[in-house]
Amino acid sequence: MIHTKQMALAATVTTAVLWTICSVMVATMPNAMLQLTAHMVHVDVTGFTWTLTWTGFFIGLLGWSVSAGAAGFVLAITYNRFSRSAHVAER
């Protein structure tokens, strides 16, 4: 069994940390991060630039963290239900 609230909190905190690290990297190495992003999503980013503001940082931090927390919560619930079904089938 996975504890749903703890899983949601772990996903939220992990995402917040990763978002912060990513934002720092964009702020300190914008060209390298733009090229990395281009490779990751298979697009030509010629002429693109980053728009990184404090407002954008906090909106992204909140949005991604809440979304990840909700996904972690649903993941834990789904896992627990499948886990219970597997135990019933084994009997």
UniProtKB/TrEMBL annotation:
Pfam families for the chain: DUF5676
TM region(s), chain numbering: 50-77
InterPro entries assigned to the protein according to its UniProt record, in alphabetical order: DUF5676
UniProt entry keywords in alphabetical sequence: Membrane, Transmembrane, Transmembrane helix
Protein known as: Uncharacterized protein
Organism: Congregibacter litoralis KT71
